[in-house]
Each structure stands twice: as C-alpha cells, then as structure tokens.
Amino acid sequence: MSFLGFGRPQPSSAEKIAAVEAEMKLLTEMANRLTKACQKKCIPNDYREAELNKGESVCLDRCAAKFFDVHMKVSEQLQQESQQRGGGGGGFGFGG
What we know:
Layout: H1 13-42, H2 54-84
Helix pairs in contact: 1-2
C-alpha cells in the first residue's frame, strides 16, 4: 500500500520477479554483445600465446569503456524521448 493510499499500487511478488528476470536477461544480452564485439575487434583469430598481450588488454579496456559510454548515452536519450512523450519509463539496463 502506498503512503496514505495515494500513488501507484505496489507490484506483486510475481511482477517483481518478472521485472528482475527481464533486467537480468537485458544485462546478459548486453554482456554477450560487449564480449562478442570487443573480442572480434581486439583478439586475433590465431592465438599466438595463452595470455593477452599489452596491446590486446588496452584494446579490450578501451572497447569496453566505449561500449558502456555509448550504452549510457543511448539510454539517456531514449529516456528523455520517453519523458517528452509523457511516458515516464525507466532506464534501459543500468544507469537509466
């Protein structure tokens, strides 16, 4: 129940679980896209050594940082557009 009976009704346990599952699915998909994109860009197909060299490590670090930066900017833009349309909606993934 909300404060003094005003506001939105509280979600049920099933709705909370569904929301958490949807969020986990989005985060898993995002992690998979990040891994695939950065691996394709930074790691050669012919492995020469077991450990990442310095160039590969730096490339992966920068790739992941850019990926998250773009994700945050897109999420913010989508959230602003949603609010302008009167939707209100939450973030997409994290940071929104």
